[in-house]
Write the structure tokens for this entry.
Amino acid sequence: MAIALALTPQVGVAQSPTLTVTLQNDVPRVRSTGLLADGKFVGLMRSGFPLRLHYRLELWKVRTSWFDQFIREVSWDGVARNDPLADDFVLIRQGGSVSRYATADDLAAALDIPYTVTLRPSGGSGRYYFVGRLEVTTLNDTDLQELSRWLSGDVGPVVSGEGNLGEALARGAQRVLVRLAGLPRQRLEARSPTIRIDGR
């Protein structure tokens, strides 16, 4: 009886969030799954807290000495939020593309689509691997405005050094309050299989 229960799929159990890095013809594909499965982030979005998804893919070279060698990295961001007026979910990707989804399940399916990343070893033969990282955090209104401008290519006040010191301090205080409030964050990491590159 206990064995039958253990082998029976558990209905209604949320899928654990995962990050995977796979290789297709030695090109890395980064995929996150189950980010919204437990409903915690969906509830936060419905309460007005957008999500920031910060992805980073690192290329490492295997060395025979103690530590492997970091080669370079690529990072990208996205923002997911609920639009209560339109009664839908919005996903803003780097470069400014905006997609709308009728339900949280539709948004979750969009977040599950893998990213193909052009990051290849150059120069030198050897064994290499990729490490993918994803950090999901909640944003307040000010963070969302800044990140939305950055995603669409406007880096004005950040790069020029313009801006009010008081506003910067207020934003910092807001971030501390958001962290102290215990709002959930998710950090995921995954490593790809090792690939061998022959010198030419």
Summary: Strands lie at 18-24, 27-33, 51-61, 69-83, 88-93, 98-101, 115-116, 126-138, 186-191, 195-197. The chain is about 25% helix and 35% strand.
